[in-house]
Amino acid sequence: MKQTGMGSEKIIRRKRDGELEYQPDDLTVEEPLEIRIGRKVLATTMRTPGHDQELATGFLISEAILRQPNELAKLSSPGENIVIVDLAAGVKVKLNSARRFGTISSSCGICGKASIDVIRQNFPPIQSTGSRIGLTTLLGLPIRLREQQMEFAHTGGIHAAGIFDLRGRPLIVREDIGRHNAVDKAIGRAFLDRRLPLDRHVLLVSGRASFEILQKALAAGISIVAAVSAPSTLAVSFARVSNQTLIGFLRPPSFNLYSHIERVDLSRS
Amino acid sequence: MKQTGMGSEKIIRRKRDGELEYQPDDLTVEEPLEIRIGRKVLATTMRTPGHDQELATGFLISEAILRQPNELAKLSSPGENIVIVDLAAGVKVKLNSARRFGTISSSCGICGKASIDVIRQNFPPIQSTGSRIGLTTLLGLPIRLREQQMEFAHTGGIHAAGIFDLRGRPLIVREDIGRHNAVDKAIGRAFLDRRLPLDRHVLLVSGRASFEILQKALAAGISIVAAVSAPSTLAVSFARVSNQTLIGFLRPPSFNLYSHIERVDLSRS
User: Fold this and answer.
1) Between B160 and B118, residue with greater pLDDT
2) How far apart are CA B185 and CA B55, in angstroms?
3) Which of A204, B91, B129, B227 shows the smallest number of beta carbons within 10 Å?
4) pLDDT of amino acid A113
5) In this complex, which of B14, B79, B253 lies closest to A109 when CB atoms are compared?
6) Taking CB atoms and an 8 Å cut-off, how many pairs form between chains A and B?
7) CB contact at 8 A, B94 and B63
8) Nearest CB to B31: which of A46, A112, A177?
9) Once rounded to an integer, what is the mean pLDDT over residues B144-173?
10) Which residues of B touch A106 (CB under 8 A)?
11) What is the ipTM for the molecules in this complex?
12) How far is A23 from chain B (nearest CA, A)?
């Protein structure tokens, strides 16, 4: 088992000219991580090894189990694919979102609106209104994310999540085979560094923006979320009610703005 | 709430020339689907509405709950985002894989090898050895998948999964915001049509191939799995022990072969 982000395997490659070659190829490592609270297994996620304690921390923040640094007593890794989180005395463990969803019952089972309401019970909308990003800074983020990425160029099989300040300076960049894991790792690191809430920061993800990505950003208090690819309908609805600015298809010089455009200075320089 | 795969939202778009326009944009719909067995909620998945009963069916096949058509008594949709599966009398519901994983304990928590072993307890490796796909047929699959896709060109935010026979004829193509859902929908349809096992068929996914995709393919008895993007290390390990042929980066005229190359006729025509 490897603890690095890449594995090397000998494969057969058919090249563009039709010739075959047999040589090593770099692959993104995927391994399960078991997240425990004390002795109880909370979740198992398939992830790329590395920054596992940050991942576990970010996951608990997204699940609204962990809110303040003083609620976390200890993080430990007794094995390669286990993180044990010990919470401070008195911190209650709520059910995870899948289970929370399961308790809702209405004529639609659970609809998008109900999903949003569940999250909003745990996380209020972004409060601050002062954050603003300039056009040039925004357009510069994708290349800055790429500069910080270690793996993508090699394997083509990894997602990245970066947290930047409003001047475009990278605070944290993390990679993972799962987009949600990359975001959890970045948010977990920021939490451990006591940087939350990140209302004066931007989260950029290398792929698409789903409901879950917006939810995680809100849990960290992030007011601006940008994605290189498409958002979903529910991500847009969520951003609008959560007072989050959502930018999609950020492929300089173009992008789309889906919500709370007031945080982007669209004036041409 | 929409039951189609696309939603339309007015957005601000910054065009390549720097001009701004305000107009509708097509987005992929993301809504939760609650899958129940009888009255019990088994799972909630974020999916693109459409083919929900196929999705629920495919999910239960992947979870090794449903194996034979006669084990399924009834599928019903009492609301837009609920599917109720009634199993035939006597069919046992096992715990889902997350919970199964949770019961394993070793020095690594659960490692990749243990994950593979858990799946193999439920699904034996592919038995047949006769399936073989020709080079020209293989190289033709991505364009055939694209031809069958309805949405991608519009939204850029959806995954596709297609099941093809060994002559490259499409049997089923399904789309979803989640790659695993697209595969579940395709497999669920094939099951309902009593086409399983699909050992003389190819599964092509539009994105990457993770462990989970290979697992679902094995549950349906699919012997050849191809992906337009990268596989993970665990997907490759899984394919090797499951006697599955795994093809990655299928971007004609090139591709990579990761396992069981004997099912691809590499001779140049």
Assistant:
1) B160
2) 4
3) B129
4) 74
5) B79
6) 208
7) yes
8) A112
9) 86
10) 79
11) 0.87
12) 10
Check CB contact under 8 Å for B41 and A102.
yes
Residue contact B101–A233, C-beta within 8 A: no
Are A185 and A192 in contact by the 8 Å Cβ rule? The answer is: no
- Of B132, B141, B151, B147, nearest to B245 (Cα)? B132
A53 touches B: beta carbon within 8 Å: no
| Residue B106, pLDDT score | 42
Please name every residue paired with B209 in a beta bridge, in sequence order, or none if there are none. Answer: B231
Main-chain dihedrals φ then ψ at residue A112, nearest 5 degrees? -55, -45
Question: What pLDDT is stored for residue B90 in this prediction?
Answer: 86
Pairing between β-strand B133-134 and β-strand B40-47 as defined by DSSP bridges: unpaired
* Stated pTM of the model: 0.90
Q: Give the Å distances, CA to CA, from B105 to A79, A81, A93, B118, B119.
A: 10, 11, 22, 12, 16
Strands A264-265 and B6-14: unpaired
- Amino acid in the structure at residue A235: A
**Alpha-carbon span B45 to A46, nearest angstrom:** 16
For each of chain A's 269 residues, which pLDDT tens digit applies? 333 466 777 789 999 898 999 888 889 999 999 899 998 888 888 999 999 999 999 999 998 899 999 999 999 999 889 999 999 998 888 655 444 433 333 444 556 777 777 777 788 899 876 889 999 999 999 999 998 887 656 666 789 999 999 999 999 999 999 999 999 999 999 999 999 999 999 999 999 999 999 999 999 999 999 999 999 999 999 999 999 999 999 999 999 999 999 999 988 65
- B49 and B80 in contact (C-beta within 8 Å)? yes
Give residues 61 to 90 of B whose Cβ lies within 8 Å of A.
79-82
Measured CA to CA, the distance from residue B54 to residue B228 in angstroms comes to 24
Q: Inspect the interface and report whether the beta carbons of B232 and A177 lie closer than 8 Å.
A: yes
Cβ pair A27:B102 closer than 8 A? no
Q: What length is written for chain B?
A: 269
Question: With an 8 Å Cβ cutoff, is A169 touching chain B?
Answer: no
Each residue's pLDDT tens digit, B75-86: 999 988 999 999
Shortest Cα distance from B33 to chain A (angstroms)?
Answer: 7
CB of A201 within 8 A of CB of A79?
A: no
Whole-angstrom distance, CA of residue A39 vs CA of residue A188? 21
3-state secondary structure of B195: coil
Q: Quick check: B131 and B224 in contact, CB under 8 A?
A: yes
